[in-house]
Amino acid sequence: MNTDKLSARLAAVAKYVPNGASMADIGSDHAYLPCFLAKNQGVRFAVAGEVVEGPYNSAKNNVRLEGLADVISVRMGNGLEVIRPGEVECITIAGMGGALITSILESGKDKLSSVKRLILQPNISANSIRKWFLENNWQLIAEEIMEEDGKIYEVLVAEKGDPLRTYSSELEIGLLVGPFLLQYKNEAFKKKWTAERNNWLRIYNQLENAAQTQETIEKKEELLNKIKLVEEVLKDENTKRS
User: How much is the pTM?
Assistant: First the structure.
């Protein structure tokens, strides 16, 4: 991966950044994504934010080597503190856990007033991002799921709007697995949720043999509910194929 050729997950993020947008890439690592966007999608201004000194220096070097210092501002700082209110209209955050991404968004809410689009790629816990969207009036408008190098990634795209509009009557399962992903159920989707179901079953069986405290009972109920939801989704898919 470099500034000319992105990984599959970052390429999926890049295609949702509007041409000519001003954007910020939070946790930009080597600034591959903003450099690619500046060279291929004409972003007029980008912030590459990084909290760790090594990747920050690498990002600065890559931007300089590409001759993009007039377009991309590399800044060191935590989360959205690297941008000013009103400075960008699109934010990308890729390669972190869903809980960390929502924490970054929550901590930087004052920076989101001018932002029109969020493009997020959580490595785990995408459902926590969907819940944050729901609670903060961001409407999920697109999702993708893919496998790359043996790992499964999701990309979530949201704009300000009615967060319930996307879910119709399937809110609980939609929040868990993704309302758009639920419609298509590609191989990566089936692989992810089969593995998740099996892991939950393993944990449930362990809890069955543990002391039955109130906490244990509640955890078992939570797991059983998620197992049933996912099994219904996978069963529907198997029924279609038979």
Answer: 0.93
- In this prediction, residue 240 carries a pLDDT of 53
pLDDT along the chain (242 residues), means of 10: 83 96 96 95 94 95 96 97 96 97 96 96 96 97 96 97 89 95 94 96 92 90 94 73 48
Instruction: Burial-class residue 204 by CB neighbours within 10 Å (0-12, 13-18, 19+).
Output: middle
Give the Cα separation of 185 and 110 in Å (integer). Answer: 36
Confidence (pLDDT) at 242 = 44
Instruction: Give 116's Cβ-side CA count (13 Å radius).
Output: 8
**What sign for the dihedral angle of Cα 65, 67, 69, 71?**
negative
What are the φ/ψ torsions at residue 2 (nearest 5 degrees)?
Answer: -155, -165
Q: Is 161 helix (H, G, I), strand (E, B) or coil?
A: coil
Closest to 10 (Cα-Cα) out of 149, 104, 164, 129? 149
Distance CA 59, CA 208 (A): 50
Q: In what order do the strands lie in the sheet with 45-50?
A: 72-76, 45-50, 22-26, 90-96, 117-122, 151-160, 138-148
What are residue 127's phi and psi, to 5 degrees?
-65, -30
Name the amino acid, one letter, at 137: N
Task: Judge whether 152 and 192 are in contact, CB under 8 Å.
Answer: yes
Specify the long-range contacts of residues 190-195, CB closer than 8 Å, at least 24 apart.
Answer: 190/234, 190/237, 191/147, 191/152, 192/145, 192/152, 193/230, 193/233, 193/234, 194/234
